[in-house]
Design a protein that fits this description.
There is one protein chain. 16% of the residues lie in helices and 44% in strands. It contains three helices and eight strands. The chain has a six-stranded mixed sheet. A two-stranded antiparallel ribbon has the order 2-3.
Length: 229
Amino acid sequence: MIHTCIARFRPLLGVLAAAFVLGGCATVGGVSRGDDPDFSAIEPPQPVPAEFNNGAIYQASYGTGLFEDYKARRVGDVLTVLLAERTQARKSANTSTTKDSSVSIETPTVLGREYPRLNSSLEGSRAFDGSGDSAQSNQLDGSIAVMVSEVLPNGNLMVQGEKWIRINQGQEFIRLRGIVRPVDVRADNTILSTQIANAQVAYGGSGTLADSNSPGWLTRFFNSPIWPF
């Protein structure tokens, strides 16, 4: 009897096993601190060896002007980015088409004789009406301290960094990467996120709260593009 039950449910078990495997492939890996080198902290370059130093106290590579504001300009320097991201998009479309056609054949005459039964007429109509409306808005406020990872040949700064906040049962993170013009850096060593070129800003979370807002693997499988129905 046990073998009979197994044979009866064998197709269902096969489907569930395939769903488990494919669903596992579609699962997005968890996010952890420091797992992406594009947002990791950058260490400043090591000091020049003693035999190449140009002074016991003063070193030109680490010199600071006495009459200028201290701003990030070298690899490893810290810069504060003020997040002021607001986007809003809206799109709508409407389409309507109609088409009517008719064909009529009068009583045909063959060899002088009429054939009323061959009278025929065709009528057709076609109509299409479609509409769509889409709206999206996003807002991100706050601040994040990033580090200069590279000084480009034209003097612009490549910056990157991440901030993690642990709250109760989960963690929230902000990641940022982009290119900064030194002239846009304010006197207090801050810059608006809207002034960063090629900006990559990521905000998300991990933990119990983030997991509760994500669909399970079986739901992701049935909503995946490979599901034929």
